[in-house]
Amino acid sequence: MSDTHTADAMTVRRDDPDDIVARLEEDIIFGRLAPGARLTEDALMSAYGTSRHFVRQALVDAERRGIVRREKNVGATVRFYSAEEVRQIYEVREMLTRQAALMIPLPAPQNLTDELSALQRQYCARADLQDLRGIHETNDAFHLALFSACGNPYLVRSLQDYMNLTLPMRAKNLADSDGLAQSRRQHELMIELLKGRDSWALAQLCVDHMQFSKKDYLARIAGGEVERRDAPNK
Description:
Elements: H1 3-14, H2 17-29, E1 38-39, H3 41-48, H4 52-65, E2 68-71, E3 75-78, H5 83-102, H6 110-128, H7 132-148, H8 153-165, H9 167-170, H10 177-194, H11 199-209, H12 211-222
Antiparallel strand pairs: 1-3, 2-3
Helix pairs in contact: 2-4, 5-8, 5-11, 5-12, 6-7, 6-10, 7-8, 10-11
């Protein structure tokens, strides 16, 4: 491979819009960019070593995911959620979660519990390494595999949208040892409940599973840790 071809390939990777979006999302959901922080194009171009075109594309995608807000005469900011918005968003997510869990036929087929057990092992391995991106990805993969068993792809898509919407609220807990330990235990219990016939217990556990991050975010709002403010440029 020629040096020119190698350089071109590196440029493509650097300006891969999916990569820029992933890096921006990671900085937001893992708290490196605080809720309410202004996102200037120049600062993001410098931070990610990319062009204005790809920064703008990343901001549009992040806005669509609900983690960035763009307003006229204000620009782009990391999405801030009020306590009332958090409660309302979680109300919908809890209803969708409960319904999806109740629709999963029990006892679940062996291939589903095998898939979830494999994802749980990956999740635990990422947690042991304190790999935040890996924890986030394997956690979401676990839940999407679980809820896909409900048999309604439209319900699963709605659930996925609300999982994405709550990313800024729940991602901080990926680094919380107590929260991770609880999450691991609850995942294991979900797999066990799938082997039985108690759909209501499974549904309630799935709803209980998301309460830790919701309560934590509300507590941070009450304590002033999450508030509208400008953060220094990266």
